Amino acid sequence: MIDELKRVSLAQKVNIWKRVALDLQKPARQQRIVNLGRINRYAQDNETVLVPGKVLANGEFSRKVAIAAYSFSGSAIKKIKESGGTAMQIPELLQKNPQGKKIRIIG
User: Fold this and answer.
1) What's the pLDDT score for residue 75?
2) Consecutive H or E run containing 105
3) Per-residue pLDDT tens over the stretch 35-64
4) Does domain 2-105 have CATH number 3.100.10.10?
5) Which helix (H) or strand (E) holds 87?
6) What Cα–Cα distance (Å) separates residue 98 from each residue in 10, 34, 42, 101?
7) Which residues contact 76 (CB under 8 A, 6 or more apart)?
8) Could you tell me how many helices (H) and strands (E) the chain has, helices first?
9) Is the pLDDT of residue 103 over 90?
10) How far is residue 79's CA from residue 64's CA, in Å, rounded to a whole number?
11) pLDDT of residue 28
């Protein structure tokens, strides 16, 4: 996945995928963990949020956002779907939006 992110970054001349690849290359202890409460605080409805790490279910969540992350807890996916949002893996977002437009990185 990291090699694919770097390849698309060079091909599309977009730095967002290179940054995500560098974040994912870090050791597991340094990878980002983001709670849904934080996403709820900083994201707007109908926005795409990218988390280069894991999403956990702590906190209130009431936004209709598309969240792409390396991994999700089971309860986080449940909360996202209950609020009308979508949860996807980073490669899926890369396929849908190779230009990296209108993506907010949180974490």
Assistant:
1) 96
2) strand 103-105
3) 999 999 999 999 999 999 999 999 999 999
4) yes
5) strand 86-89
6) 11, 24, 23, 8
7) 36, 55, 56, 57, 87
8) 5, 5
9) yes
10) 11
11) 86
